[in-house]
Amino acid sequence: SIKEEFLPEEAEKETKQILAELSQCGDCWKKRGAFVTLKKKGRLRGCIGFVQPVYPLVDAVRAAAKAAAFEDPRFPPLREEELHETTIELSVLTEPERVLCEGDREEILNSIKIGRDGLIVRMGPYSGLLLPQVATEYHMTEREFLEATCEKAGLPRDAWKDEECEVLKFQAEVFEEKNEERK
After folding, report:
1. For residue range 73-93, what is the model confidence (pLDDT) as tens digits?
2. pLDDT of res. 71
């Protein structure tokens, strides 16, 4: 199960039961892109995943959970004493599709729907991704979301206007652990 990769034996029975049921789901063995986001007291603590559907969902989630906990270069490895303050969010992705634009690159903004679409920006060796919920959580406009994705890729904020910059969008089904005790 997801959390059992890094939770101690005394982890909540309810969480283990939910994750056990999830692993029995037939769709969980289909190849899907997935991201696992860890939040400590509501703030980002780790986020790692797979954009492309190269692994069965169960395996993608297991690997992403472990990587989000221990390998996200933005954070030190998760410690056991942090677990009671840490929640997990799973985003199951659709396959990314290229945003096509003929002529004015500003048209790209019209194809983005905040709250539904996540974005990927690629240009040369640079690539960045933001999940759909990021735009909602930070109250971004379509332009701000696209600019933030460029920034995440290490590109100038307006790189999306360059015809060499590839913009893709995807959707995500999000499963978020709700635990009022973990604030």
Report:
1. 999 999 989 988 999 999 999
2. 96
- Which of 36, 39, 30, 71 lies closest to 50, judged by CA? 36
Give the pLDDT score at 182.
47
What backbone phi and psi angles, to 5 degrees, belong to 53? Answer: -80, 75
Tens of pLDDT, residues 110-122 = 999 999 999 999 9
Q: How far apart are CA 46 and CA 37, in angstroms?
A: 6
Q: How far apart are CA 92 and CA 36, in angstroms?
A: 9
Domain ranges of the chain: 3-93, 97-171
Predicted model pTM = 0.80
Mean pLDDT of the region 138-145: 98
Three-state SS for 6-52 is CCCCCCCHHHHHHHHHHHHCHHHHCECEEEEEEEECCEEEEEEEECC
CATH fold for domain 3-93: Glycoprotein, Type 4 Pilin (3.30.700)
C-alpha of 44 from chain center = 11
Topology of the domain comprising 97-171: Dna Ligase; domain 1 (3.30.1490)
Alpha carbon distance 172, 88 (integer Å)? 15
Question: Over the stretch 29-55, which tens digit does the pLDDT of each residue have?
Answer: 899 999 999 999 989 999 999 999 999
Q: How many CB atoms lie within 10 A of CB 127?
A: 17
Pairing mode, strands 166-176 and 126-130: unpaired
